[in-house]
Design brief:
The protein is mainly beta. The chain has one domain. Helix content is 0%, strand content 36%.
């Protein structure tokens, strides 16, 4: 299994995968994360996008890192400071 460049293909939406990020002048690093499509994942109203038609707040579209050791937050948005450059399926992830 190899990493797929983000410029070639985005990962499937709303599915945890491995995301490779790279900050300028630093080596790439890998996190567990996902790409969230607009209007698909409900969120808290203080920072999310509001959909008047559905009267719900949703996570903005973009990449999110999975936090495995926090109780309060499960996903956090990935900033452009260390953008996602590639992704791949989690090995053994469907088992």
């Amino acid at each position: 299994m190899a990493f797929i460049s983000i410029t070639d293909q985005h990962p499937p939406a709303n599915k945890p995968v491995l995301l490779k990020q790279q900050r300028e002048n630093y080596k790439p690093f890998v996190v567990v994360g996902q790409f969230i499509e607009k209007g698909t994942v409900e969120s808290y109203e203080d920072w999310a996008e509001y959909d008047e038609e559905r009267d719900e707040h949703y996570c903005p579209e973009g990449f999110y890192e999975r936090l495995m050791n926090w109780d309060e937050y499960e996903w956090i948005a990935i900033s452009d400071y260390a953008p996602v450059i590639a992704w791949m399926e989690i090995p053994g992830g469907d088992e």
